[in-house]
Write a structure and sequence with these properties.
Shape of chain B: elongated
Number of helices of chain B: 12
Largest interface: A-B, 37 and 64 residues
Mean pLDDT of chain B: 90
Low-confidence stretches of chain A: none
Distance between the termini of chain A: 28 Å
Oligomer: heterodimer
Number of strands of chain A: 2
Number of helices of chain A: 1
Distance between the termini of chain B: 49 Å
Strand content of chain A: 15-25%
Radius of gyration of chain A: 14 Å
Largest sheet of chain B: 5 strands, parallel
Structural class of chain B: alpha/beta
Order of helices and strands of chain A: EEH
Order of helices and strands of chain B: HHHEHEHEHEEHEHEHEHEHEH
Helix content of chain A: 10-25%
Mean pLDDT of chain A: 92
Strand content of chain B: 15-25%
Structural class of chain A: alpha+beta
């Protein structure tokens, strides 16, 4: 059985600003476009 | 700590350059691991492209969260519902309060409602639901387990698909932070919840990094149950800080469950500025503490939307008869 897996990202003082004002960002958009293209939606 | 100082002092007399190089190499190994996980992650396709609407459109994913009352879990299930709708896949979320009897009811409801896949989400152990999983399997309904195992953990029997979390890597990284930030002089207290399945690979990751990059550092543990999180972590950490004035890091495995209590203990003990915290999960309230920076220096974050996409992808592949 193949395991799907998701990544993690280290946030410290050097890059915490990239987590955004709500602290929910910082992972880019590659996965959104990537999955939707994979599913034939884009 | 005293032992480490004595060893280092003795060694410096005979071979200062060699020791300095060894320490630097150790710190550098941990630093390299941190650096490689500090950038924005890239998407890697989990499998071949497929026509999601044709393969899974109109079908139903039945999601049984470990508990609908945990915001982390309910956020993922709500993300799944929104994402699955993009491919015209229906989602039913079985609301519950974390009682195993409610998970059993959910499994039975999923079969009765002729769902095409069941997702156990973020903590409900399939080992305790074998009769229901077998019954669903007999009806052609696979049970997919999401956000429970690390890749190196063996899943329970009869599971039809997995979405794993790199717990071991997360454990490595929170250890690396303590090693690097103390310049390989860590005296770290690890707060564990051994009741949670993911604690095993996380602790293995912590031990591996200390073993490789901080051989003479000190590592101690304090464990609490889920039920005791709110009442035992602060007194346990405070007692440890009193017993060992050399502690300079508290490694919290699960950020929102542990870090606020450990932080309160550090402040109450008057050790702000001397004892830091590294942790895992990326809960926004704890990331705010990273920005503040006086105690929580680092958080290994997951992305709950990315997790939602990964679970929906795996579910649609399996419902569509594609390899998981």
């Amino acid at each position: 059985m193949k395991n799907a897996r998701v990544p993690v990202r280290v946030f410290d003082k050097s890059n915490i600003a990239q987590a955004g004002a709500g602290f929910t960002s910082g992972f880019g958009n590659s996965y959104i476009g990537g999955y939707q293209k994979l599913w034939g939606l884009k | 700590m005293k032992k480490w100082v004595l060893i280092l002092a003795a060694a410096l007399v005979v071979a200062p350059a060699a020791i300095a190089a060894a320490v630097a190499t150790g710190s550098n190994g941990a630093q390299a691991n941190l650096d490689s996980h500090r950038k924005v992650p890239h998407f890697v396709a989990p499998g071949p492209a497929f026509d999601a609407k044709a393969k899974a459109g109109g079908k139903t994913i039945f999601v049984i969260p470990a508990s609908s009352q945990v915001p982390f879990v309910s956020t993922i299930s709500n993300n799944m519902k929104r994402i699955a709708a993009l491919a015209e896949v229906k989602t039913t979320i079985w609301q519950n309060q974390g009682q195993p009897s409610q998970w059993v009811q959910g499994m039975n409801a999923a079969v009765a409602q002729k769902a095409k896949a069941i997702v156990l989400l973020a903590g409900n152990d399939p080992a305790g639901l074998q009769p229901q999983i077998k019954a669903a399997k007999a009806k052609g309904i696979p049970t997919i387990v999401a956000h429970l195992y690390d890749d190196h953990q063996k899943s329970a029997a009869n599971v039809g698909g997995l979405i794993n979390i790199p717990y071991n890597i997360a454990g490595q990284l929170i250890a690396d932070q303590a090693i690097v930030d103390t310049k390989a002089k860590a005296d770290a207290l690890v707060v564990t919840i051994n009741q949670v399945k993911s604690t095993v690979p996380m602790v293995a990751g912590i031990r591996s990094q200390f073993s490789k990059f901080c051989k003479d550092c000190k590592l101690t543990f304090t464990d609490v149950t889920i039920a005791d999180i709110a009442t035992k972590i602060q007194p346990n950490v405070q007692a440890a800080l009193t017993a060992d004035p050399g502690i300079n890091y508290v490694i919290c495995l699960y950020d929102s469950a542990e870090a606020p209590f450990a932080e309160a203990a550090i402040r109450a003990a008057g050790r702000t500025g001397k004892v830091k915290i590294s942790t895992f999960n990326g809960t926004p309230d704890i990331l705010k503490e990273v920005k503040k920076g006086d105690i929580v220096t680092m958080d290994v974050a997951e992305n709950l939307e990315w997790i939602g996409y990964a679970i929906v992808d795996q579910s649609m592949r399996i419902m569509g008869g594609l390899p998981p």
